[in-house]
Amino acid sequence: MRRTVERTGARAMTDQSSPHTPPFPPTTESANATGRTERRSDDPIVRAAIDNVRRHLAALSASEIVQLVLYPEPLVAWAKGAGVDDSQVANLFRRHRRYNRLRTLLATRLGVPITVLDHLIDAQPAVPAAKRPAAYRAILADAGLGTWAERPPIDWTTPPYPPHRDGTNPLERLAMAVLGDAAPTMPPSRIIGYAMWPETLAAFAARAQRFSLDQLLTTLSGLRRSDAIEVALARRLRIPHRTLDAFIRAGKRDAYASDGSADL
Description:
Blueprint: H1 2-8, H2 28-33, H3 44-55, H4 62-70, H5 75-81, H6 86-93, H7 100-110, H8 114-122, H9 136-142, H10 170-182, H11 188-196, H12 201-208, H13 213-221, H14 227-237, H15 241-249
């Protein structure tokens, strides 16, 4: 049950991050003591992750948005504290059942009206821009259809809201703000998962056919690195190998010591 909820949240981005990630990352002092520099928000891979999420914000799953707003508290931890069954949380985001009481509890924790949470869960996500052909916009514009799919801005002061997402839901905007502040504190696999989305790390490993997801996650954790995996990943991310090397070597801040999401 516990794993079911985690897959609906942040770990879905990497199709399950390493279960061996410690709950309390090393502090700046411990990172410096081991000679590791601290990962910063201006790291090229961190910036790529933030930019990619911003580009695809309206296409991310509702559970991913909620998990970002809750960060660093895992969705499964909130559910346990609220006395909510894991399977109910999973089914809520799958839209199998409505669960009005659960929606009320979660909206209260997130600090938004329930109508805003309802929209995030029930509205149709956008198609990821990365899944459109490169010439999509140019061809439609040339055919005189450049504005056919444009919709008026959503007025968040007047529910009910239209059944589509455009990236302006207050929870989507909160998620983006949290990611901008907290990305350097996240595990490397999660950051790279955001940078690669909508392709997952599992899909990338399967496509490469030279290593498993576990081997990829172990490399990113720095526990047992592989030049071959890193070269393939750097090529996928379109960055120099030295940039990926610096990213993996860097330490991360303690998420609970940062104030990026302290008020959420």
